[in-house]
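Archive transcription. Copying these from loose printouts into the bound notebook so they stop getting lost. Printout 1 of 2:
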Amino acid sequence: MGRLNTYLEDIYRFAFWTVGIAVVFMLTIGGFMYLTSAGNTSRMESAKTVIFDAILGLVLALVAWLFLYVVNPNLVNLNLTAVSIRPISSTAPASTTGDATGGTTPPPTSSGLYTHAEAMAALANGISVSSSGNCSNQNNASCTSLEGIPAPVVNRINALRNASGCNLVITGGTETGHKTHGTGRGSVDFREDSCLGNFLRDNVTQYATYGIAKICAPTNWQAAVRASCVEPSGSPHFHIQFSI
């Protein structure tokens, strides 16, 4: 949805710039024709027609703008994301949750935390987990573990995947070795990806809707996604802290 909104905004800008340039061009042509008519009645009438048509086009464009503003001010503020994005529920899964293969996985423990296996089963299609050690041991910093991840955080990860359409790769979960990660916390690291970066950039004003409390990003993305901190150059990833 974020990429579609970007395309629509580009079309919107192009259309209004085109109208503006066309009006100025036609007024210039009409004015030149009128000034050089030298008393030629036919040429003067043609010039007046060109000027009238240009002004009429401008009026129609302004009427269209006013109509869009009355329907929804976000349409003329180029904030199309506010029109289409729907709030995301932060509630825990019901008694059973569909997994990526269409089966079911048990609900989290009474504390609202998933085991690693439960979290993996609850993640939507298009979300994978990767680690340098190719393991999921929570006590090994070379692994990527989802042991003890809160159920609402898994919900928000799935919602981020569904809204962005990006293939998300989790490179940091609850494993040891992180200052802000751990059991019961909402911090998750995602592999740096242009699709995810562009979605965050296009929806930067909607972070609260997605339950995003804080983002740290590589230097090349920091300004675009309004990250509050920069990730080390040797570890290119988006650190997203979800609210719980």
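Printout 2 of 2:
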Amino acid sequence: MKIGVVGAGNVGATTAQLIAQQELGREIVLLDVAEGIPQGKGLDIAESSPVDRFDTLIKGTNDPEDLCNCGITVVTAGIARKPGMSRDDLLATNAEVVGSVCEHIARVAPNAIVITVTNPLDAMTHVAFKKTGFPPERVVGMAGILDTARYRYFLACELDVSVEDVTAFVLGGHGDSMVPLPRYTTVAGIPVSELLDQCAIDRIVQRTRDGGAEIVGHLKTGSAYYA
């Protein structure tokens, strides 16, 4: 399968690297408007293939036509948050970027599945849905798994257990409106309410909601891109 990654910043480049390492596709197209950036990062990832033992082909490009016939496109393009900004502060700028990208995708890769990563995630997924005209099952946002991962990690740290022992999920939007569900959270099958008091649970729930902002606060420029 041919997979497109739109945006060669930290999120896009990391996404392309992980796709290559896991050989999820035969070919990756890393697209960005900045000349030289996708080409350089694509080459850097490709040169790691003998060490990481993968044979995925990687092409860095500035030409949207290279997304032609992609089976999956991951949209990471747009500006990132800075300290003090909410995800919603990115809305106007990133809606224009994502809208333009998705119009190209609809034209050159009409059968693709679109996965949006750009913030504000829920709004950008809606933009992608409208601009591509694709059926809803082919336009998805990735945030639920990220919010759930943060929630599980914080619980594992609090209880000093493996993240693999924590079963949990988070509903709602990717932002302040997300809803971690302690009632359905277990650790090795034990309800979390039997292991932590309500104060500790509330603190972890709030840290989950603030998870992205916490990382932005540390980085000062840019936002999370490994998770």
